[in-house]
Design goal:
Elements: H1 22-30, E1 38-42, E2 46-49, E3 52-53, E4 59-64, E5 71-74, E6 82-85, E7 89-93, E8 96-98, E9 106-109, E10 112-116, E11 119-121, E12 126-131, E13 134-138, E14 141-143, E15 148-153, E16 157-161, E17 164-166, E18 179-182, E19 186-190, E20 193-195, E21 198-199, E22 202-203, E23 206-208, E24 215-218, E25 221-223
Parallel strand pairs: 1-4, 2-5, 3-6, 4-7, 5-8, 6-9, 7-10, 8-11, 9-12, 10-13, 11-14, 12-15, 13-16, 14-17, 15-18, 16-19, 17-20, 18-23, 19-24, 20-25
Antiparallel strand pairs: 21-22
Length: 224
Amino acid sequence: YVDRVAPCDVGDGTMAMPYCKISQAFDKMLGDDVSLGWTIKIKSGNYVEDPLAVPEGALVAMSSWDGIQPKVRATPGSGPTLSVTNATKLFIDNLAFNLNDESNGVVCASADVWIDGSRMASNANQGYESTDCNTRIRRSVFFKNGGGGVASYGAGGTWITNSFVTSNGSPILEEYGGIRSAQGNEMHVNFSTVVNNVTLAGPRSLQCTPDAGPAEVRNSVLIA
């Protein structure tokens, strides 16, 4: 358990004595077997943390403790807010990764990620970027990320379902706007809304590069 207003020097991660930082929960996992399966419950509030890295090979769920979406961002000028790598399996439920002042909200490399009921908004670069990952996004929002909404590269696939990807990109950047699929990635966009995303070249909701894998778009709205 994590509560940003809890005393930082006495917590042990229990409900009665929660940690004050999410990073402390990851440190606790490293002192044990990270693959056993861990749940991190995060109380509502604004968390400013050094860049968070999920322990490699971990099986972990991160979710809201009290049902109100906690807001997480990295300390200014420090890198992506959350990184997931090397065979980790991560489930993100009802969390917000917002307001990173120079980088991405969440970055995945060679891992499996589930994002449910969450929000990645107003990050200076991208909301979510993956390389060689399997990513399943449901009921989530990617809004006003300066470098783009969702980018997926390499082996694996990305499933975006019942989600909103809106107002991402910038008219002064040569980026992809809403969603990018590249380097063999398999892309699925179902029951989703992708609107008002923009690049230097103009509006762009979905970009599949020439080396991208197959893409499926159905029961969705793509505008501008």
